[in-house]
Protein backbone atom coordinates (compact mmCIF):
# COMPACT_ATOMS: atom_id res chain seq x y z
CA UNK A 1 0.00 0.00 0.00
CA UNK A 2 2.80 2.41 0.93
CA UNK A 3 4.51 1.71 -2.40
CA UNK A 4 1.27 2.48 -4.25
CA UNK A 5 0.84 5.76 -2.36
CA UNK A 6 4.45 6.77 -3.07
CA UNK A 7 4.07 5.82 -6.72
CA UNK A 8 0.84 7.84 -7.01
CA UNK A 9 2.47 10.85 -5.35
CA UNK A 10 5.47 10.59 -7.68
CA UNK A 11 3.15 10.39 -10.67
CA UNK A 12 1.26 13.49 -9.53
CA UNK A 13 4.50 15.43 -9.12
CA UNK A 14 5.58 14.33 -12.60
CA UNK A 15 2.26 15.40 -14.06
CA UNK A 16 2.48 18.76 -12.31
CA UNK A 17 5.98 19.22 -13.68
CA UNK A 18 4.82 18.31 -17.15
CA UNK A 19 1.93 20.78 -16.88
CA UNK A 20 4.30 23.55 -15.80
CA UNK A 21 6.65 22.76 -18.69
CA UNK A 22 3.70 22.72 -21.09
CA UNK A 23 2.56 26.06 -19.76
CA UNK A 24 5.66 27.90 -20.90
CA UNK A 25 6.28 26.31 -24.26
CA UNK A 26 4.33 29.24 -25.68
CA UNK A 27 4.97 32.72 -24.21
CA UNK A 28 1.76 34.68 -24.80
CA UNK A 29 1.87 38.46 -25.26
CA UNK A 30 -1.29 40.54 -25.05
CA UNK A 31 -1.51 43.74 -27.11
CA UNK A 32 -4.00 46.45 -26.16
CA UNK A 33 -6.69 47.57 -28.58
CA UNK A 34 -6.93 51.08 -29.93
CA UNK A 35 -4.85 50.67 -33.07
CA UNK A 36 -5.66 48.52 -36.09
CA UNK A 37 -4.66 44.89 -35.72
CA UNK A 38 -2.27 44.67 -38.67
CA UNK A 39 -0.18 47.55 -37.34
CA UNK A 40 -0.03 46.06 -33.86
CA UNK A 41 1.08 42.65 -35.13
CA UNK A 42 3.71 44.22 -37.36
CA UNK A 43 5.09 46.37 -34.52
CA UNK A 44 5.43 43.40 -32.16
CA UNK A 45 6.84 40.95 -34.72
CA UNK A 46 10.38 41.71 -33.55
CA UNK A 47 9.55 40.41 -30.05
CA UNK A 48 7.91 37.35 -31.52
CA UNK A 49 11.10 36.62 -33.48
CA UNK A 50 13.63 37.29 -30.71
CA UNK A 51 12.06 36.05 -27.49
CA UNK A 52 11.86 32.27 -28.09
CA UNK A 53 15.64 31.89 -28.03
CA UNK A 54 15.99 34.30 -25.11
CA UNK A 55 13.35 32.62 -22.94
CA UNK A 56 13.97 29.04 -24.05
CA UNK A 57 10.39 28.55 -25.26
CA UNK A 58 9.16 27.01 -28.50
CA UNK A 59 7.27 30.06 -29.66
CA UNK A 60 5.88 33.47 -28.76
CA UNK A 61 2.26 34.16 -29.64
CA UNK A 62 0.75 37.62 -30.06
CA UNK A 63 -2.83 38.34 -29.04
CA UNK A 64 -4.09 41.75 -30.22
CA UNK A 65 -7.31 42.31 -28.29
CA UNK A 66 -10.22 44.28 -29.65
CA UNK A 67 -10.14 46.54 -26.60
CA UNK A 68 -8.25 47.07 -23.34
CA UNK A 69 -10.44 44.69 -21.38
CA UNK A 70 -9.56 41.76 -23.63
CA UNK A 71 -5.95 41.91 -22.45
CA UNK A 72 -6.96 42.58 -18.85
CA UNK A 73 -9.19 39.52 -18.74
CA UNK A 74 -6.50 37.40 -20.40
CA UNK A 75 -4.02 38.35 -17.69
CA UNK A 76 -6.56 37.75 -14.92
CA UNK A 77 -7.52 34.39 -16.41
CA UNK A 78 -3.95 33.22 -16.94
CA UNK A 79 -4.25 32.94 -20.73
CA UNK A 80 -1.68 35.72 -21.28
CA UNK A 81 1.82 35.87 -19.82
CA UNK A 82 2.84 39.46 -20.49
CA UNK A 83 1.46 42.76 -21.70
CA UNK A 84 2.09 46.47 -21.60
CA UNK A 85 -0.84 48.23 -19.97
CA UNK A 86 -1.97 51.70 -19.12
CA UNK A 87 -1.87 52.52 -15.43
CA UNK A 88 -5.67 52.24 -15.15
CA UNK A 89 -5.65 48.84 -16.83
CA UNK A 90 -3.11 47.64 -14.29
CA UNK A 91 -5.25 49.16 -11.53
CA UNK A 92 -8.24 47.13 -12.70
CA UNK A 93 -6.21 43.93 -12.41
CA UNK A 94 -4.73 44.92 -9.05
CA UNK A 95 -8.19 45.59 -7.64
CA UNK A 96 -9.61 42.33 -8.99
CA UNK A 97 -6.65 40.10 -8.06
CA UNK A 98 -3.48 41.72 -6.70
CA UNK A 99 -1.63 38.41 -7.07
CA UNK A 100 -2.29 37.96 -10.80
CA UNK A 101 0.51 40.08 -12.28
CA UNK A 102 3.42 42.27 -11.27
CA UNK A 103 4.51 45.52 -12.92
CA UNK A 104 8.20 45.19 -13.78
CA UNK A 105 9.16 47.99 -16.18
CA UNK A 106 7.93 51.29 -17.55
CA UNK A 107 9.19 53.67 -20.22
CA UNK A 108 11.33 56.75 -19.72
CA UNK A 109 10.53 59.77 -21.91
CA UNK A 110 13.26 61.52 -23.87
CA UNK A 111 13.38 64.23 -21.18
CA UNK A 112 13.93 61.63 -18.44
CA UNK A 113 10.39 61.71 -17.03
CA UNK A 114 8.34 58.59 -16.37
CA UNK A 115 4.98 60.13 -17.15
CA UNK A 116 2.76 61.29 -20.00
CA UNK A 117 -0.45 63.26 -20.48
CA UNK A 118 -4.07 62.97 -21.43
CA UNK A 119 -4.50 65.32 -24.38
CA UNK A 120 -7.94 66.62 -25.30
CA UNK A 121 -8.21 67.58 -28.96
CA UNK A 122 -10.84 69.18 -31.16
CA UNK A 123 -11.06 69.71 -34.89
CA UNK A 124 -9.49 73.04 -35.80
CA UNK A 125 -12.38 73.99 -38.07
CA UNK A 126 -14.85 73.50 -35.18
CA UNK A 127 -13.81 76.82 -33.66
CA UNK A 128 -13.36 75.13 -30.26
CA UNK A 129 -10.25 76.34 -28.46
CA UNK A 130 -10.96 76.14 -24.72
CA UNK A 131 -12.89 74.07 -22.19
CA UNK A 132 -15.37 76.93 -21.94
CA UNK A 133 -16.16 76.44 -25.63
CA UNK A 134 -17.08 72.82 -24.89
CA UNK A 135 -19.78 73.46 -22.30
CA UNK A 136 -22.94 71.69 -23.39
CA UNK A 137 -21.17 69.82 -26.20
CA UNK A 138 -20.19 66.19 -26.87
CA UNK A 139 -17.02 64.75 -25.34
CA UNK A 140 -15.49 61.47 -26.49
CA UNK A 141 -13.33 59.12 -24.45
CA UNK A 142 -11.02 56.46 -25.90
CA UNK A 143 -11.78 53.34 -23.85
CA UNK A 144 -13.33 52.77 -20.40
CA UNK A 145 -10.13 51.06 -19.22
CA UNK A 146 -7.79 53.73 -20.59
CA UNK A 147 -5.95 55.90 -18.07
CA UNK A 148 -5.47 58.91 -20.33
CA UNK A 149 -8.53 58.28 -22.44
CA UNK A 150 -11.00 58.03 -19.56
CA UNK A 151 -9.93 57.71 -15.90
CA UNK A 152 -7.67 60.75 -15.59
CA UNK A 153 -9.99 63.12 -17.53
CA UNK A 154 -12.97 62.08 -15.39
CA UNK A 155 -10.93 62.64 -12.21
CA UNK A 156 -9.08 65.80 -13.28
CA UNK A 157 -11.48 67.75 -15.48
CA UNK A 158 -13.91 68.77 -12.70
CA UNK A 159 -11.18 70.93 -11.13
CA UNK A 160 -10.85 72.86 -14.39
CA UNK A 161 -14.50 73.05 -15.44
CA UNK A 162 -16.01 73.53 -11.98
CA UNK A 163 -18.51 70.71 -12.37
CA UNK A 164 -18.73 66.93 -12.80
CA UNK A 165 -18.10 65.80 -16.36
CA UNK A 166 -21.65 64.44 -16.70
CA UNK A 167 -23.11 67.85 -15.81
CA UNK A 168 -20.81 70.02 -17.91
CA UNK A 169 -21.03 68.20 -21.24
CA UNK A 170 -24.24 67.46 -23.13
CA UNK A 171 -23.13 63.87 -23.61
CA UNK A 172 -20.11 61.59 -23.47
CA UNK A 173 -19.26 58.39 -25.29
CA UNK A 174 -16.42 56.07 -26.29
CA UNK A 175 -14.59 56.14 -29.58
CA UNK A 176 -13.47 52.51 -29.64
CA UNK A 177 -9.79 53.09 -28.86
CA UNK A 178 -7.44 56.06 -29.16
CA UNK A 179 -6.89 55.93 -32.89
CA UNK A 180 -10.56 55.69 -33.78
CA UNK A 181 -11.47 58.36 -31.23
CA UNK A 182 -9.35 60.96 -33.00
CA UNK A 183 -10.90 60.01 -36.32
CA UNK A 184 -14.38 60.39 -34.80
CA UNK A 185 -13.46 63.85 -33.52
CA UNK A 186 -12.38 64.85 -37.02
CA UNK A 187 -15.65 63.44 -38.41
CA UNK A 188 -17.68 65.46 -35.92
CA UNK A 189 -19.08 62.52 -33.95
CA UNK A 190 -17.60 64.21 -30.87
CA UNK A 191 -16.82 67.91 -30.41
CA UNK A 192 -13.61 66.93 -28.60
CA UNK A 193 -11.93 63.77 -27.38
CA UNK A 194 -9.24 62.56 -25.00
CA UNK A 195 -6.17 60.68 -26.22
CA UNK A 196 -2.54 60.64 -25.06
CA UNK A 197 0.90 62.01 -25.77
CA UNK A 198 4.28 62.46 -24.13
CA UNK A 199 3.84 66.21 -23.79
CA UNK A 200 7.50 66.42 -24.81
CA UNK A 201 8.36 68.20 -28.03
CA UNK A 202 5.81 70.02 -30.17
CA UNK A 203 2.08 69.49 -30.53
CA UNK A 204 2.42 70.16 -34.26
CA UNK A 205 4.47 66.95 -34.50
CA UNK A 206 2.12 64.92 -32.30
CA UNK A 207 4.73 65.25 -29.53
CA UNK A 208 7.60 62.74 -29.31
CA UNK A 209 5.40 59.71 -28.62
CA UNK A 210 1.83 58.65 -28.02
CA UNK A 211 -1.25 58.06 -30.14
CA UNK A 212 -1.11 61.36 -32.02
CA UNK A 213 2.52 60.77 -32.99
CA UNK A 214 1.77 57.24 -34.18
CA UNK A 215 -1.12 58.46 -36.31
CA UNK A 216 1.05 61.17 -37.86
CA UNK A 217 3.80 58.68 -38.68
CA UNK A 218 1.29 56.33 -40.32
CA UNK A 219 -0.08 59.14 -42.48
CA UNK A 220 -3.49 58.98 -40.80
CA UNK A 221 -3.39 62.44 -39.25
CA UNK A 222 -2.33 65.97 -40.09
CA UNK A 223 -1.82 67.84 -36.83
CA UNK A 224 -2.84 71.06 -38.58
CA UNK A 225 -6.39 69.66 -38.47
CA UNK A 226 -6.44 69.58 -34.65
CA UNK A 227 -6.15 71.95 -31.70
CA UNK A 228 -5.21 71.05 -28.15
CA UNK A 229 -7.99 72.06 -25.79
CA UNK A 230 -6.71 70.62 -22.50
CA UNK A 231 -3.77 68.71 -21.05
CA UNK A 232 -3.97 66.70 -17.83
CA UNK A 233 -1.56 66.58 -14.91
CA UNK A 234 1.32 64.14 -15.42
CA UNK A 235 0.20 60.47 -15.50
CA UNK A 236 2.54 57.61 -14.52
CA UNK A 237 3.68 55.75 -17.63
CA UNK A 238 1.92 52.40 -17.89
CA UNK A 239 3.69 49.21 -16.85
CA UNK A 240 4.93 46.13 -18.59
CA UNK A 241 3.43 43.37 -16.44
CA UNK A 242 4.23 39.67 -16.20
CA UNK A 243 2.03 36.90 -14.88
CA UNK A 244 3.15 35.99 -11.38
CA UNK A 245 2.70 32.26 -11.97
CA UNK A 246 5.47 32.23 -14.58
CA UNK A 247 8.71 30.53 -13.51
CA UNK A 248 11.18 33.00 -12.01
CA UNK A 249 13.86 32.28 -14.60
CA UNK A 250 11.46 33.17 -17.43
CA UNK A 251 10.56 36.45 -15.72
CA UNK A 252 14.22 37.28 -15.05
CA UNK A 253 15.26 36.57 -18.64
CA UNK A 254 12.35 38.57 -20.03
CA UNK A 255 13.01 41.65 -17.90
CA UNK A 256 16.73 41.58 -18.69
CA UNK A 257 15.98 41.30 -22.43
CA UNK A 258 13.52 44.20 -22.35
CA UNK A 259 15.84 46.46 -20.34
CA UNK A 260 18.54 45.91 -22.94
CA UNK A 261 16.20 46.35 -25.92
CA UNK A 262 16.65 50.13 -26.38
CA UNK A 263 20.35 49.48 -26.98
CA UNK A 264 20.27 46.04 -28.61
CA UNK A 265 17.47 46.86 -31.08
CA UNK A 266 16.39 50.50 -31.06
CA UNK A 267 14.03 49.97 -34.00
CA UNK A 268 12.16 47.21 -32.16
CA UNK A 269 11.97 49.35 -29.01
CA UNK A 270 10.53 52.25 -30.99
CA UNK A 271 8.06 49.99 -32.81
CA UNK A 272 6.53 48.40 -29.73
CA UNK A 273 6.41 51.70 -27.83
CA UNK A 274 5.11 53.86 -30.66
CA UNK A 275 7.52 56.77 -30.71
CA UNK A 276 10.68 58.17 -29.16
CA UNK A 277 11.55 57.02 -25.67
CA UNK A 278 14.86 57.00 -23.83
CA UNK A 279 14.79 53.70 -21.97
CA UNK A 280 12.95 51.31 -19.67
CA UNK A 281 13.19 51.57 -15.90
CA UNK A 282 12.15 49.26 -13.06
CA UNK A 283 8.81 49.80 -11.33
CA UNK A 284 6.87 48.23 -8.47
CA UNK A 285 3.19 48.39 -7.50
CA UNK A 286 3.95 51.45 -5.36
CA UNK A 287 4.45 53.52 -8.53
CA UNK A 288 0.75 53.06 -9.36
CA UNK A 289 -0.82 53.56 -5.93
CA UNK A 290 -2.45 56.88 -6.85
CA UNK A 291 -4.00 55.46 -10.03
CA UNK A 292 -5.27 52.36 -8.21
CA UNK A 293 -6.85 54.61 -5.58
CA UNK A 294 -8.38 56.86 -8.24
CA UNK A 295 -9.86 53.92 -10.12
CA UNK A 296 -11.24 52.41 -6.92
CA UNK A 297 -12.85 55.73 -5.97
CA UNK A 298 -14.28 56.47 -9.43
CA UNK A 299 -15.37 53.18 -10.90
CA UNK A 300 -14.92 50.59 -8.20
CA UNK A 301 -12.30 48.60 -10.11
From TrEMBL:
InterPro entries: PhnD, Phosphnate-bd
SUPFAM superfamilies: Periplasmic binding protein-like II (SSF53850)
Family: Belongs to the phosphate/phosphite/phosphonate binding protein family.
Region forming the signal peptide: 1-21
Gene3D superfamilies according to UniProt: Periplasmic binding protein-like II
Biological processes, Gene Ontology terms: organic phosphonate transport; transmembrane transport
Protein name: Phosphonate ABC transporter substrate-binding protein
CDD domains according to UniProt: PBP2_PhnD_like
Keywords of the record: Signal
GO cellular-component term (any): ATP-binding cassette (ABC) transporter complex
Pfam annotation, one family: Phosphonate-bd
Tagged with keyword Signal: yes
